[in-house]
Write a structure and sequence with these properties.
The chain has 351 residues and is of the alpha/beta class. It folds into two domains: 264 residues, Rossmann fold (3-Layer(aba) Sandwich), CATH 3.40.50.300; 72 residues, no CATH class. The chain has 14 helices and eleven strands.
Length: 351
């Protein structure tokens, strides 16, 4: 059993993702045949504990949002397994051979769900999108936006009372129920989006850069709100961002992604203090230091992320890595445990 799989045997693991792959076909020619594939997510394995916040970090094009949407089955996975809220004994059996008997897989593997079973699990897994201006229906009142998931899932609730309660939880009032999204500020629209995601009482919420579309003055308010909601409702977050200051404030653990693959994974404090992957080191070097007398060496990565259609033969980061060696160009590094709970995909991890 690989060391990353051992972490999935934690009894508190809520989401268990194994070797998840999402490739998009590229069509070409007169007959529109498949000529290549975009390797958006390429063999990612990790787990999220109940009640924690896992931050997924990387540049644009690294596969963060595609990973989240594949887990939620917005995109159909090309291959791999997505296990949600599986009993520990069953996960132990899975880890013995990476698989499950077909009947058990149908019970627990989200990648095999369809119809009503997929709909029922989606009630427990929700998402808050990056831009509320585009994710909220401009023709619907706030009360109807928040109530829509309740009606779709046919939950037996007093809908108006439930909407009022959710608005109160996110720091808004009853007077906002009869407004349209364009009548609200950016921060208020994001609060409505959060309330909508919470309307089905989910266990797991994907937060896709929820603070990037709001003013700087509102960001801390939104982050504090998310932390308070997590405490009150015992929520588990998958927080997608490129802002490492936000990660430092809200995350328990961090996953660094690059070109569809995991580069580093571990506890937030350990990764911020002792990054083991050159890509993580470069990202951390870009964080501004509040002390004007303290200087941090800035690592400038040259070039752009390679095309996911034709990724490098060896390490995905080899074309931009300042420490690249010959071996890095020839073979992809496996994900190995460097310290307790800290994993890195690098042949020559930083000391």
């Amino acid at each position: 059993m690989s060391s990353i799989l051992k972490t999935l045997l934690d009894e508190n693991v809520l989401l268990d993702v194994r070797n998840l792959v999402k490739h998009f076909p590229v069509y070409g020619g007169v007959f529109r045949r498949v000529v290549a594939y975009v390797r958006a997510v390429d063999g990612v394995t990790f787990g999220i504990r109940a009640g924690e916040t896992l931050a997924v970090v990387g540049e644009s094009g690294s596969g963060k949002t595609t990973l989240a949407k594949t887990i939620l089955r917005v995109y159909e996975p090309t291959s791999g397994n997505i296990f949600f809220d599986v009993p520990l004994e069953i996960r132990r059996r899975m880890s013995e051979g990476w698989g499950l008997p077909e009947k058990l897989a149908e019970l627990y593997d989200l990648s095999k769900f369809d119809g009503n079973r997929l709909k029922s699990i989606r009630r427990r897994m929700q998402i808050v999108y990056q831009d509320p201006s585009s994710s909220l229906n401009p023709r619907m009142l706030v009360k109807d936006i928040i109530a829509e998931p309740v009606r779709i899932h046919k939950l037996k609730l007093d809908v108006d009372h439930h909407v009022r309660e959710l608005l109160t939880r996110v720091g808004m009032g009853e007077e906002h129920m009869y407004r349209y999204p364009h009548e609200l500020s950016g921060g208020q629209r994001q609060r409505v989006a959060i309330a909508r995601a919470l309307s089905t009482n989910p266990d797991f919420v994907v937060l896709d850069e929820p603070t990037s579309a709001v003013d700087v003055s509102v960001r801390v308010q939104i982050l504090n709100l998310l932390k308070e909601l997590q405490r009150q409702m015992r929520l588990t977050y998958m927080f997608i961002t490129h802002d490492l200051n936000v990660v430092d404030y809200i995350a328990n653990r961090v996953m660094i992604m690059y070109l569809g693959k995991m580069m580093e994974f571990g506890e937030r404090a350990l990764i911020f203090d002792k990054p083991s992957h050159p890509y993580t080191e470069a990202l951390l070097s870009a964080i501004p230091v509040a002390d004007p007398f303290t200087r941090r060496k800035r690592i400038i990565l040259k070039g752009e992320i390679p095309s996911p259609v034709k990724p490098p033969q060896g390490c995905p980061f080899s074309t931009r890595c300042p420490y690249v060696r010959e071996r890095c160009l020839k073979e992809p590094p496996p994900l190995t445990e460097l310290r307790n709970g800290q994993f890195t995909a690098c042949f020559y991890p930083l000391s």
